Hints:
Layout: E1 5-8, H1 16-22, E2 36-42, H2 49-68, E3 77-83, H3 88-100, E4 106-109, H4 113-126, E5 130-132, E6 147-148, H5 158-168, E7 175-181, H6 184-199, E8 203-210, H7 218-227, E9 231-235, H8 238-250, E10 257-259, H9 265-272, E11 277-281, H10 292-303, H11 313-330, H12 336-343, E12 347-348, E13 358-359, E14 370-377, E15 382-391
Parallel strand pairs: 1-3, 2-3, 2-4, 4-5, 5-6, 7-8, 7-9, 9-10, 10-11
Antiparallel strand pairs: 11-14, 12-13, 14-15
Helix pairs in contact: 2-10, 2-11, 3-4, 5-6, 7-8, 8-9, 11-12
Amino acid sequence: MFRSxxxxxxxxxxxxxxxxxxxxxSSGSGGGGGEYQVGFNSDLSGKxxxxxxxxxxxxxxxxxxxxxxxxxxxxxxxxSVTDDASDITRGTANxxxxxxxxxxxxxxxxxxxxxxxxxxxxAARNKVPINCNAVADDLLNPVQPYVYTARxxxxxxxxxxxxxxxxxxxxxxxKVAIIIFASAASVSLEQGLxxxxxxxxxxxxxxxxxxxxxxxxxSQVAKIVGAKPDVIMGSLxxxxxxxxxxxxxxxxxxxxxxxxxxxxxxxGLLALKDPNFYLLASTSLDGTGDGAGLVQYRAALAxxxxxxxxxxxxxxxxxxxxxxxxxKACGYPCNxxxxxxxxxxxxxxxxxxxxxxxxxxxxxxxxxxxxxxxxWDAATSAPKLALANATAxxxxxxx
Length: 399
């Protein structure tokens, strides 16, 4: 099952003498033995480990598949994995370790935007790109040369959410509510939703934040139910989204909730089966379809005994796909600086795996510019497409 050569690293920094011997990774060449070196750092044991483990497994599955089919440019990819447990100190230590001791050309993962933000300075110092699951706006605008996200930035999920909200609102004087969990990226989404709501003349009757450590949303449910909005938009990952929707139902409040790309098919949509829960998804939800990219995705997951509905398997696979295509364009050996230059020219047709191509430019380090929404269809007892190819935007003049 484990085709890629994987090293599970400790969460701390290596001893000082080892670090000194290794030196800076800015000259990282793809490693010894003729292999590319790639890192992965995410939450594998903490509050967001449900998503982080799925993300890791999808990331690994891509490189397992690549290695089983000859590698990239004739070279295998060696993957080193670390666990930050959504702790900033551990995340920065792991990032340093991967760059200076393992000499990786890139690192994927970073389930939490706060950890990505702290790692950004290390990436810049070592000239090694990081591809983060979630990124706050201050790392994307202005662009930080070594910070990327293969997904749509959370702030740019604001315009797609508002587009769907327009279809759901029936009132001539719309009232909206916003609820997010308080990561840096979700705060950026909240700000985008505020801008767009005000521009549309919508009355924001409730605006709630949930702590990153919260396990209960009853107070937020009570405030939003009391405000009687026509629609709710925001970001709650699966456990909180389930609690939130069940709280609305218990209060006999039938209000549509449009959630971000951090909720998932298996633990969100299928767990609830609620026709008022709308899920944003820029990548394939279940791997079905005829595109070449989807055929490879299914084959990669099957080889590692993974299910396409597992939370964040698709997100990890997308990050790995981006890095793999970057290495292919970079050639061998490929250090962080060369890979960064290759990323800035990346434009990949994912063969149906994503809504639109995966692409970056020197001015835009956000990989996807379109997304879909899904909702539970009680008539067919299955998810259905609620809105296709909604365009990214955050309510600013440039977005």
